[in-house]
Amino acid sequence: MARFAYTLLIVALLPWAVLHLLWRARKQPEYLRHWNERFAWYPKPTPEQSRLPTLWLHAVSVGETRAAQPLLSALRQHYPKHRILFTHMTPTGRATSEALFGDSVERIYLPYDTPWAMAKFLSYYRPTLGLILETELWPNLIAACLDAKVPVYLVNARLSERSARRYARFAALTREALQGLSAIGAQSKSDATRLEDLGARKAVVTGNVKFDIAAPADQLDLGKVLKARCGERLIWLAASTREGEEALILDAWKLHSAKVGSGEAALLIIVPRHPQRFDEVARISAARDFKVQRRSENSSIAASTDVLIGDSMGEMFAWYACADLAFIGGSLLDFGSQNLIEAAACGTPILIGPSTRNFAEAAREAVACGAARNVIDADELVSQVNVLLSDANERKHMALAGRGFAKRHRGATARTMEMIIPAAR
Questions:
Q1: What's the predicted TM-score (pTM) here?
Q2: Does the 2-208+411-420 domain belong in CATH 3.40.50.11720?
Q3: Do 217-408 and 2-208+411-420 fall under one CATH topology?
Q4: Which of 40, 247, 352, 384 is most buried, with most CB under 10 Å away?
Q5: Domain map of the chain by residue range?
Q6: Which listed residue (37, 64, 315, 342) is catalytic?
Q7: Per-residue pLDDT tens over the stretch 240-256
C-alpha cells in the first residue's frame, strides 16, 4: 500500500516535473534535451544492443559519476565483453560522464519512477546487473528489478543523520526498497548502521571508492601549466563552491587579504560547482572591484588579476595540482560539503567549513591527521588562508598528511567487486 500511494503521488507530480524541466532550462538549456528518456520512450534497439550483455550503473549527478571511475575500470577488467550503461538525473552528471568516459559507455536519463516506465527501461536495456551509487532509493525501480530478476546493489552507500530522518518518515516504503536490494556496500560503519536501522537486511562496510580515484597524469601536467600561467604568485583555490558562498568569500578576501611570500597578493581561483553559475560568479567578483580573468580565455594570468574563474569541466585534479591551498566548497553554507578526498590525494592542504555531513567521517579523519583545518566562517577562512600561505613548512606537513590519509583508505573498489562479482554474468 505504501508503494501504491507513492506511485499515485509520482503520477500526480509528472506535470510539475515537466514544468520543473522548463524552469531549469532557463539557465541550463540542456534540460530540454533527451526528454524521451525521462519517460522511457526509446528508439528501436540496434542488433548490437540486443546481443551484448549490459552492466548498468546509476550515478545521479557529478559526484556520483566521478566516484564511478574506479568501479568502471574494475568492471571493464572483469567483463570486457559487456556494454556499460550509465543513467543520470541531471545534465551536469551526464556531461561529466561524457567528459570522463566519452563513447566507451552509453548514457541516458533514468525515467521517472513509475512502475511502467521502470519496467520498460529494464525490458529495453536488459541489464544483467545494476549498481546504484551512494543513496538513490527509487521504490518502483527496485521493485521492477525484483520482478525482472535483475540483481541491484547500493554501492558506495552513504546516509547522513539528516537523510536518515527523512527516510524514516516513510518507514514502510524505505524498508521495502532497502530489502529489495541484493546487497549494500556502505562507506562507513555509521552509514551501515543507519541503513540497517531503516530496514536493510545487511550493509557491508566496503569503504569509499572515491579514495581509489587516481589523479590522471594529464591532469597533473595541466596543473603545472596552469601554475606557470600564474607566475610566481601563491594560489588559493575555492573549489566546487555553491550558491551564496562566493559572495561571502569575496567580501572576506577583499577585507582581510594580506600580501604573502614575495610581497604580492595571492591569486584566488574560484571553481563553481555548477557550470550554469560560471557567468554569475564572474559578475559578482567584478562587482566587488576585483580584476577578473576566466580559464576559458586560455591565456597567461596578468599580475593585476585578483580572481580567476575556473569555468571549465573535468579539470578539478588540475586545479588542485595548481593550488598551494584549497578550500572545499559546499561546506561554508549548509550544503554538506563537496569532495575533499581529491585534494588530499593531490597533496593540497585543505580548509573546510562547518557543514560536512556528506563527507563527515572523511572530514573528521582529515582534520585529525593534519591534512585539513576547520573554519567556522568566511572571515576565519581568509585568516587561515593568510596564515598558511605565509608558512611553507606547515603547508608541506599538511600535504604529506593528505597523501598518507588518501593512501590509507584505498581498497573500497576491490571490496565492492568481491560483493557483486557473483551476480554479474
A1: 0.87
A2: yes
A3: yes
A4: 352
A5: 2-208+411-420, 217-408
A6: 64
A7: 999 999 999 999 999 98
